[in-house]
Amino acid sequence: MAKEFYISRMDSKVADTIAAVQLALDKRLVKSVRTQRKVICVPGCRDEIIAGNISIKSLKHEYRYEDCSSSPSSINSRSLSIEGTYRIVDIRQEDAPLTNLRTQTLEGLRQPRNQKYLPSLLLWGDEGQQLYDEIVRSKHYYPYRVESELLKLKVGDIARKIASTGSDVLLELGAGNMEKTGLILRHLDALDTPLTYYALDVDHTALEYALKSLQDSLKLRNINLCALQGTYEDAAKWLATSEEARGRKKTIAWLGNSIANLEQGEAGDLLGRFSEAQGVECLQGFIIGIDGCQDVSRINKAYDIPGGATRRWVRYALKAGRLQLGPEADAVLHDDNWQWAAAWNPGNHRYENYLTARKTLTATIDGTMVKIEEGERLHTLSSGKWTRSDVDRMCSPQGLVLADIWSSPDVGYGIYWLQPAE
Ligand SMILES: C[S@@+](CC[C@H](N)C(=O)[O-])C[C@H]1O[C@@H](n2cnc3c(N)ncnc32)[C@H](O)[C@@H]1O
After folding, report:
1. pLDDT at residue 78 above 70?
2. pTM of the predicted model, to two decimals?
3. DSSP E strands: which ranges in 24-91?
4. Predicted confidence (pLDDT) per residue in 133-155, tens digit
5. Smallest CA separation from ligand 1 atom 7, residue
6. Which of 2, 128, 142, 393 could tie 123 with a disulfide, CB 3.0–4.6 Å?
7. Which parts of the chain span the membrane according to its record (predicted)?
């Protein structure tokens, strides 16, 4: 608990870091704080906290915090070294959605009738990740199970494919619990393929736990582990600008049908940006897990699992929204005001999660009136179910070709290998 408490704030503004460290000291969540360069004194703190390098001993780990914002190549990144074994690098940019989640949340509530939304990023904080983990353990949630089974079956081919490209970077977008990635890394390691695995995700705690368990369970000899905290957008920027990424051959993995949380056009544009960011000669290929199931009854069961974990997860966006917006938003985002509602949208090939207002709701937030009518819908997250032709349509405008596919015939789940056209 201790480290989650303040480390999640470590990489935001220095002032927040100081406040968080101070509180952590007060609550005896950390053992000690050591600083290397005195800049700012915090009254009452046992030590002086600075805007430079900070060493913190928590009850479990030792963290080193480096403020590298003065370095031109670092995109305002700061890195936390944990016990010297793997790094978690904060690549969030100042104006990016993750850092401006509050603004985005308010923006979503100000949209016209039935276009209102809560940003899906709200679902992926610590608590949201735990709820999602509960969902993937359910036998009804077939996407996770089917992709895992497919990977177990085809992991030799997939690892050989990655190794054959000579990639020395494997970047995974939205890495989550990394359980499935572990299968691929184990095989790559056995092929004596030296590379660095970069796990990108938005949530620091999730990255930390997942990397630690990968490291403990796999004992890799040829693969370095590193995590990037940020969004897909931040990762595209990082690829384009960081010294660390420049000139290295890369494979990008995107598993778990996460790509289909985006609209098809948006997803295609993002793939295009990833290709451009590295220079086509560096991009070896994308390996992307996409759910193409068209069996509506199976989909309905998977997205409303018995026991209600999916509903709790979707509702969690309300709590996360309240945390972003503060007490002013309670009148609108209080849990009792909303009913869970979700539906398969056949036109868009996607399952859409909504909350519906039980009554007309109003609040004044940051001086602006927010009004939601009774029965109005608030969108949270969609999960697309894309067929092979959808994938073709998405990737060809980006100069990518579908070069290989490993699929599960009964459900229509595919693991696609996309690469730059010759
Ligand atoms: C559907 S889960 C998939 C997790 C994992 N890849 C798997 O297959 O089990 C989506 C993951 O993407 C992350 N994520 C969601 N939106 C993101 C964004 N905009 N940028 C980076 N990561 C994101 C979430 O935190 C979550 O871990």
Report:
1. no
2. 0.82
3. 30-35, 54-58, 62-67, 78-82, 86-90
4. 999 999 999 999 999 999 999 99
5. 256
6. 128
7. none
